[in-house]
């Protein structure tokens, strides 16, 4: 079985190992598998990598050593000293430079023959035409919002008539010793929006706790950040990376903590709370990025089944208590606002004001819309922008849903500037005893 | 008030140092003591085969700042290395692979020192191991020469050094950790949600008195006070009432559910300011916090473990463990951890309650320290270690409790039982029933590929013939009779034969990430390492830990 032909790539000796696996049939390859054109096909594939941070550096290295030669990378960040413990394409002297550019140059220099095109941009700077040029997108992001944006873009791009419009998305994410790798085949498998409730936002501390009854060091820090800073305005604009600004918040939080007898306010904690810092280490990034790129190789070469193709499409990884992976099938949701067909139920109460309804959209794990504009029954109820429209619709915020004539079962359309292309459709669901 | 304090305390900025900034994201996981342990470690990699997985492992140790590493690798860089190993480039062709790897890996972190072998002075493994360097852990990659493996194992036995074997080929890999003896972990970093221990069914006098005082006129409290009672006092109050009425505390799920409803019903819905959330918090906490005292399985294993080894006898861990056992036998409970989760309450009241828990924890720890210091050898035990043990008593874990060097018989037994479990699995899986089959076939096939010689051509042939799936199956059947008939074993053998010893970079990177992570846990003695073999299946995208 293993003695079948190994088909060469353009540098046959260099890719000896890779070719043994990707160009020969294995026990699980499809019966019609042929390795003949695989190396060339992978070399000509254009792949987009989103993010050149902890996962992105690994992904670029992995793809370059997997026989892909035409890679683009988008990242608008610059290199910070706290990146150096894991973002291994960067050195001390690179601090302040563009991540995408430094990463691209490093990998190009190390792996002969690979072309990496950096884009020092936000993903939102590009339109459909730009994303259409790629055959595959691999994401190494730390923001849920960016993931949702690219997911919506790729799902919307699918045109049943044009095979080229279909772009698989492979997404990785890490937090400390934990992470996940998942494959999304837009409109075929569950998408990132379908799985949104798996990434529930952390519950916010009530303002009254911050203002009058703090109990934890975090409460004191949030108070300094949200309340004290606004009152004192010690600097024109808060720069969370400026040690002087963080130091000011730290001092304020510390003083408040001392007043209330609360222990535990430190500089590191202050920084962690205000920047919402998530611990990140080289080893987890290595595991998750490699899991993503392994799926990319299987998908591009057909040398083995990949996630999304069979039953499973999601691998969860936990490394703090021994090693545990859970590989499963995340289900498609028929009421997914991005890839589904039906409106999603939105729990509400006729006595709620419109403002309360909007707040619930931010807190709801499966919605997480922070700047929603709302329309219902052909009427605009609230618009975030332009300012003139915002002013005109603002009075509605204090009206109750009943006053606005909204009833159980009413469909409402929600848009959010973070996901400009998506219309989220919800169906109001009132408690049983409050329906008309 | 604020102004006065500000002017009295000069605004010293306790900003982080350059090093703290660089390592900030990992210090949040293993703190300064973990970092110090890493920085004093010295790791040896004996690299062979394509050698990518070894390099990837080291990368993930050098970035977080391991102290030193050494690479022993007899290969010279060839064209094929450049397609799989990121720490080699065209300029390395023909040079010593260990030298080239060392140079490109050490460049990742100026805090780390790296050396390479063989060199002019040290030409083989033997003098390297008998030299002045002492290694904290040794990693080797398959296929390794039997004579070199023997030397490493002898070194491990003599110096009590953990050995990690790695094998990566095609879409598969495994790594196996050989610890020199029982490995206790105290600083296991349990999930914050698991650490809540409120002793609601066994309140000590100070806690009971505090709750009693706060709730004696609970129905007469004004709305503000009622809505700010910390839920600990609410639960203690209604538990007492429940016990009077029912003669015992709620124990079964049904009783606890009824108790939960009772608490919820007391939330004073009449308050125009809104429902009293503290009661809802309390109701939510019933299932998890209204629990009798118990001895967690990890600690039970520690208590029952016969530590007769003279080195173990004298270790701080076992002296403290014995003291905690005495404490447990006397009080029928563990030392209190002493943390109080956040709950709605007035600041002053919460801080008071927090103090009651902390004071009790300190008292328990002091009692245990006393027992420790009365034990022969206990006078040298660091009180900080005692404190940490008391905090984590419920989560202490023993790794490799029955293994260690010289236990080949039990190792063979473990393989046998893992193989028996695998052989009992059905060949066809029902897609409706979630079932993750054993990954033992992958381990067996990879191992067979290092111990088998091809049947088709004489061993002297050049280039040597590739192993076929049948060769591998034959070898597997010798080790585990009957295993070759299993479909998944056949599949694994076919896959290993296809790879023909080739590493894929992604599989190397993934495996190297896991091995580095495990070494960090072992070196820092934080978090829980695997016990003892992790197998990766890159086709089905999952891992399994087996005790082999």
TrEMBL record, chain A:
Keywords assigned: ATP-binding, Ligase, Nucleotide-binding, Ubl conjugation pathway
Domain of life: Eukaryota
GO biological process terms, semicolon-separated: protein neddylation
One cellular component (GO) term of this entry: nucleus
Annotated CDD domains: Uba3_RUB
This enzyme's EC code(s): 6.2.1.64
Residue ranges of domain E2 binding in the record: 346-431
InterPro entries, per database record: E2-binding (IPR014929), ThiF/MoeB/HesA (IPR045886), ThiF_NAD_FAD-bd (IPR000594), Ub_act_enz_dom_a_sf (IPR023318), Uba3_N (IPR030468), Ubiquitin-activating_enz (IPR035985)
Enzyme kind, highest EC tier: ligase
Pathway membership, UniProt: Protein modification; protein neddylation
Catalytic activity entry: ATP + [NEDD8 protein] + [E1 NEDD8-activating enzyme]-L-cysteine = AMP + diphosphate + [E1 NEDD8-activating enzyme]-S-[NEDD8 protein]-yl-L-cysteine
Sample GO molecular function, one term: ATP binding
Role according to the record: Catalytic subunit of the dimeric E1 enzyme, which activates NEDD8.
Family, as annotated: Belongs to the ubiquitin-activating E1 family. UBA3 subfamily.
Name of protein: NEDD8-activating enzyme E1 catalytic subunit
TrEMBL record, chain B:
Gene Ontology cellular-component terms listed: cytoplasm
Family: Belongs to the ubiquitin-activating E1 family. ULA1 subfamily.
Domain of life per record: Eukaryota
Keywords from the UniProt entry: Ubl conjugation pathway
GO terms under biological process: protein neddylation
THIF-type NAD/FAD binding fold domain boundaries: 23-546
Organism: Staphylotrichum tortipilum
Protein name: NEDD8-activating enzyme E1 regulatory subunit
Main function: Regulatory subunit of the dimeric UBA3-ULA1 E1 enzyme.
